Amino acid sequence: MQKGAIRVQTENIFPIIKKFLYSDHDIFLRELVSNAVDATQKLKTLASVGEFKGDIGSTDITVALDVEKKTITISDRGVGMTAEEVDKYINQVAFSGAEEFVKKYKGQGDGANIIGHFGLGFYSSFMVSSQVEIITKSWKPDAQAVRWECDGSPEYQLEETEKTERGTDIVLHINEESEEFLDEHRIRTILEKFCRFLPVPIKFQDTQINNTTPAWVKKPSELTADDYQNFYKELYPFAEPPLFWIHLNVDYPFNLTGILYFPKITKSYEIQKDKISLYSNQVFVTDEVKNIVPEFLMLLHGVIDSPDIPLNVSRSYLQGDPNVKKINAHITKKVADKLDEMFRTDRKSFEEKWEHIALFVKYGMMTEDKFLDKASKFHLLEDVTGGAFYTLEEYRTATAALQTNKENKLVILYATNPVQQDSYVSAAAAKGFKVVKLDTMVDAGFINHMEQKWENVQFTRVDADIPDNLIDHEATAVSVLSEEQEGKLKELFGQQLALPYIKVELKGLGAQDQPVIVTRGELMRRMKDMAAMGGSAASWYAGMPDEITMTVNANHPIYQNILQEGNGELQEKQVRNLADLALLSQNLLTGADLTAFVQRSVELMGNK
């Protein structure tokens, strides 16, 4: 029997391992099963290069729970270890057997798929164990089986033992603080989380818990649309079918595979973030992929797998690692290329999906300049009235004659709520203007950003001014009222609307236009909208009163009737009702003012 002290730089490493090696204690099962997979893959590599000439037989890995003995046993039929290898790889903490093996057999068989770093990963077992045993027998001819035992102190013992088959059994004697891991459901849940797609069969209580060949490890040419859809169901059993997907398959200058799915997302923003899982050689790492996947694609679903990202990832690692930055840029490019291809090859289908993908595209254009360059060609503007779709250049061609202002800027007229803003949309359409729909939650920020990025483009909401002023900001019609009548009308409106934030002006518009039009200036309204969403540093804007312009259409026939009315009290009520109707159309009439309007309306109808 050999006895000794584990060779570590400090005797305090075990408390550190127990408490701080991993934030989640259930990670121990991932590490030990991953090591078992490594050992199995090593054996397959040795067989493929002719070093192992025996019968591989079953390579299933088993996880066994014994509640009475308070043990969890992880068993494999991989390469096993000799006494010398146990001494080297177990007693010398942090010396990586897997790393050495990969260097030797790089590019041969399954050697490239060695998952882990056997040193510290194995010691995660002491986070939950009062004692750990290793019973192992090497694949090498005439190898002597050995048993290693340690109670979590630097002291260990290593002795010869009997074992009929090659491979390794790791027996964890669960400590009192960790007896939660003696629950069968808990173990099954952990295995399904971390080992769901490992490449070697994993069995727990005689049931295989993993799919060894998930869709992303296959070549795109080997998969049908049904295969992709079925894998999505496997990942998200209760989700609606995805719109489409992107298969990632890169081996240079970094390794990356995976499938990203575009779920159906509309303006109501039924988001489910953190639905992309990161794997390393089919071992689950994390579903917090913020630094790996571009921010605007965090709403996607699916799997990415890269052996270039270690299992023990940290935020600081992800932020600084060059491979992670390359992966991030590659995913952005692949998504842009896929959307561009869809737009060019089947525009009708792309337009049908636009409602669901607009959010991704707009957010990406705001946050990723490289994506913006490509996306400007397939970003769509949807016409509110006709249902037509335009790219920016198509919209410019269709509207340049009527919607170019004096500064030579293209004015994109938009509605955020086409139903509520219907009267404004109709008035603009009557003048030949094309109004587009911008009603997602990112549009307030999007239009601000695009005004900076797109050359000679200005966005104006359709209710920001009277139709005649939306483009050139000049009234062209002349009032039919006399100076005396205009003065009387101004007086009536002034008496009824003595509010500092409502500016009343008379203009000679078309007789068919509304008698009173309420508009809110584009700049102030936009700032208030962004502040209300928390998107503006000047959040105090949200609490400020609206700056309202009330344009009285002096050419509407109703004013001839009102001004001929001899009853001053009735005139005041009629004018106030017209003003309130205009305010109501903009959702600016509430509370006591709304109640008074209803009562006044009933009264006026009674007078008729």
Distance between the termini: 112 Å
Tell me the number of helical segments per DSSP (H or I, 4 or more residues long).
19
Number of domains: 4
Could you describe the largest sheet, including whether it forms a barrel?
9 strands, mixed
Summing up helix and strand content along with how strands pair, one would put the structural category as: alpha+beta
Looking at CATH, which topology of the largest domain would you report?
Heat Shock Protein 90
Find the count of extended strands (DSSP E, 2+ residues).
22
Pfam family, one: HSP90
Family: Belongs to the heat shock protein 90 family.
GO molecular function: ATP binding; ATP hydrolysis activity; ATP-dependent protein folding chaperone; unfolded protein binding
Keywords: ATP-binding, Chaperone, Cytoplasm, Nucleotide-binding, Stress response
Can you tell me about this structure?
This is Chaperone protein HtpG. This protein is α+β, with helices and mostly antiparallel strands and 608 residues long. The chain contains 19 helices and 22 strands. It has four domains: 2-207, Histidine kinase-like ATPase, C-terminal domain (Heat Shock Protein 90), CATH 3.30.565.10; 215-344, Ribosomal Protein S5, domain 2 (2-Layer Sandwich); 381-469, 3-Layer(aba) Sandwich (Rossmann fold), CATH 3.40.50.11260; 483-521 and 541-607, Four Helix Bundle (Hemerythrin (Met), subunit A) (Up-down Bundle), CATH 1.20.120. Strands 1-6-5-4-7-3-2-8-9 form a nine-stranded mixed beta sheet, covered by helices on one side. Strand 5 and strand 6 form a beta hairpin. Helix 15 (483-496) packs across helix 18 (568-585) and helix 18 crosses helix 19. The radius of gyration is 35 Å and the shape is elongated. The model is unreliable at 94-98 and 109-119 (pLDDT under 50).
